Amino acid sequence: MVKCPKCGEKLKGNAKFCTSCGYSIEDKETKNNKNNLNLTNILLIIIAVCCITLIGLFATGVFPADNQEVAAPVENNTTEAPVASVSENEYSDENTEYVASSKTDKFHLPDCEWAQKISPQNLVTFNSRDAALDSDRTPCSVCNP
After folding, report:
1. Is the pLDDT of residue 95 over 50?
2. Residue 122 contacts residue 65 (beta carbons within 8 Å)
C-alpha cells in the first residue's frame, strides 16, 4: 500500500494525488517525460516553420536558382536624369562581340557586370547584336547592348 510522502495518508495504488492533503503523487520521471515531450513538439514545430519559410522564399524567387539571372537593383533618383552606362558611340556593332550564357535568354556587352559572372562552360559569343537577337535573346537591362 502506497502512503502520501507529505501527510502519510494511505493511498490507492493508482492515485495521482493525495485525497487528504492534495499532494501530487505523480513521480518526477513522469513529469520530466512530459516536459521532454513538450520540448520535442516545440522543436518540431520550429523546424517545420523554418522549412516552409525556405520553400516559400525559393518559390517566390527571393533566392534565385543557379540558372536564373538576377536583375540589378534600380535606384529611383528623381532629381537627376539617368546616366547611360555606355555611350552610343563607344560600341559600334561592326567591332563589338556580345556574350550570353547558354542557361539564360539575356545577352550582354563583354564588360557588363553580369557578363563577368558567366562561367566559361556556359559562355556563348555573338559577332553582332543582330546575331544575338536572332538567337531569341533579349538585351541586358544593365549594360543595354
Report:
1. yes
2. no
